[in-house]
Write a structure and sequence with these properties.
The protein is an alpha/beta fold. The chain contains nine helices and nine strands.
């Protein structure tokens, strides 16, 4: 019975994604970035969109986690190769796309910028393996410079390849070059010109971002989607209601398990986000007592 429910949920989600993706990909936006309302309209929710990050081991482990997401009604996910290189990752990507032809799937090639990733994604597309988004930990934004040489090069390569998925670009991101907090706004503003979803984080995996940092990003980018990729849990999600997307892994994983989602923890986060999407949800709320506490 459970398998039948998963199949039904997958069919319904697939139909939704096909219709929305075709409208988006075939629109006349050209090279314009996606704005906040378009991002939320695509996923059908005005609350922060939950896009879990699956740390891939193999096909079966990845499929098992995706089945949990589909069963919970989650719209999509990111896959990342923490433990092996891209060459070993690619066959898993192909097999997962074959099994889930219409589920929204983004990728992160660990430590690979868009310069090298976009040609690979374009090749995958030509092979019939659609990838809906790419997330780079480092979008090569440098707020200290007047000219964004590397970011421009990445942007040009993206255009040349013709790959038309969403670009989530790491900005003031964990484990990358440290950005002076005084320059967060400038960094965010620059990033908004080079990617669809400006993506930031706390100082490390499992560390919640300072609320003031995220508020600064939001003020600098009122109309650009922002994703938060560390420290989000059901306990602190409300503190980050100003962002558009939660990219979450360990905050919804089984305790002390880097690779597998806990349906109960996922359900708690979904429930919190649903409340945040309620038009009656209060705009002022009590802050979490420990702003650095987080488990993603």
């Amino acid at each position: 019975r459970h398998f039948g429910k998963v199949q039904t949920d997958l069919i319904n989600l697939s139909i939704m994604c096909i219709l929305k993706w075709c409208h988006w990909a075939d629109s006349d936006k050209g090279d314009e970035q996606v704005n906040r309302s378009e991002f939320h309209d695509f996923f059908g929710d005005n609350a922060p969109i939950i896009l879990p990050v699956i740390h891939v081991i193999d096909h079966d482990q990845t499929a098992s986690n995706i089945d949990i997401l589909i069963d919970a009604g989650v719209s999509g996910c990111f896959l990342i190769n923490h433990d092996f290189d891209v060459d070993r990752f690619l066959p898993i990507i192909h097999s997962i796309r074959t099994r889930y032809p219409d589920f929204w799937i983004g990728l992160n090639f660990l430590a690979v910028t868009g310069r090298d990733a976009f040609p690979v994604l374009a090749t995958l597309a030509k092979q019939g393996c659609r990838i809906d988004a790419y997330w780079a930990d480092d979008a090569r934004i440098d707020e200290r410079e007047d000219q964004q040489i590397e970011a421009n090069k990445i942007q040009n390569i993206r255009k040349q390849t013709g790959w038309n998925g969403l670009y989530f670009g790491g900005t003031a991101f964990k484990k990358q070059r440290e950005v002076n907090p005084a320059d967060y706004a400038k960094s965010a503003q620059i990033a908004g010109d080079f990617m669809d979803v400006v993506t930031t984080s706390g100082i490390a995996t499992g560390n919640a971002a300072e609320i003031s940092k995220i508020a600064t990003f939001r003020s600098a980018l009122p109309d650009t989607p922002i994703a938060l990729a560390s420290g989000v849990t059901s306990a602190n999600a409300a503190d980050y209601a100003m962002v558009d997307c939660f990219m979450v892994a360990t905050g919804i994983n089984i305790t002390d398990d880097f690779y597998n989602i806990d349906p109960a923890k996922l359900g708690l986060l979904i429930s919190k986000c649903r409340k945040m999407g309620d038009p009656q949800w209060p705009q002022t709320k009590q802050k979490s007592p420990d702003r650095q506490a987080g488990t993603d």
